[in-house]
Amino acid sequence: MSTVEVYVLRIGHRPVRDHRVTTHVGLVARAFGARGLYLEKSVEKSVIDTIARVCKTWGGEFRVEVVDDPLRFLREWRQMGVVVHLTMYGLNIAEEGVLDLIRSIRGKLLVVVGGEKVPREVYEIADYNIAIGNQPHSEVAALAIFLDRLFSGKELLQEFPRARLKIIPSNRGKRVVRVG
Length: 180
Prior knowledge:
With 180 residues, the chain is an alpha/beta fold. The protein has one domain (4-178): SPOUT methyltransferase, trefoil knot domain (Alpha/beta knot, 3-Layer(aba) Sandwich), CATH 3.40.1280. It is built from six helices and eight strands. It has helices at 19-31, 45-58, 70-77, 98-103, 120-125, 139-150, and strands spanning 4-11, 36-40, 63-67, 81-92, 107-114, 128-131, 165-167, 176-178. The strands form two sheets. Strands 3-2-1-5-4-6 form a six-stranded parallel sheet, sandwiched between helices. It has a two-stranded antiparallel sheet with strand order 7-8. Helix 1 (19-31) runs parallel beside helix 2. The longest helix has 14 residues, at 45-58. Its main location: cytoplasm. Its EC number is 2.1.1.206. One of its GO terms (molecular function) is tRNA (cytidine(56)-2'-O)-methyltransferase activity.
């Protein structure tokens, strides 16, 4: 797919209220080519368990880890890779040259997706603040569009090793086969 290793940091999780959104951030990250997800310690264990179950059933090398201090984690990440913060206030990914800039990244890339109130420091720590449009929208949608554009759609054709189930594409009905 690419020479970049993508990981996602979900910040701003509000316990109970954001359970489903954070789970979907993890599922999208996995399905769209990221290698792992970092979560704040306030995230419910059930979110992590759900993502782990999906990985066990559908395969892949995706990992989920909890970080104690997301801002410290971001500063430390900058020592080994690039930080891209997805925000509606950033450079619009559709503007000329922005996508080329992101695609030129090699090595490790941390994509930060936040909830409603992202600390100001995240904007300052990030190497790039990138917008998927400049209107309010879902962090799940932003992550999906960002990863799809980064990988030029190739992530949609990836095979997941050690999958127990596999979908057989079909125009009608659901075809799922047990493979492991």
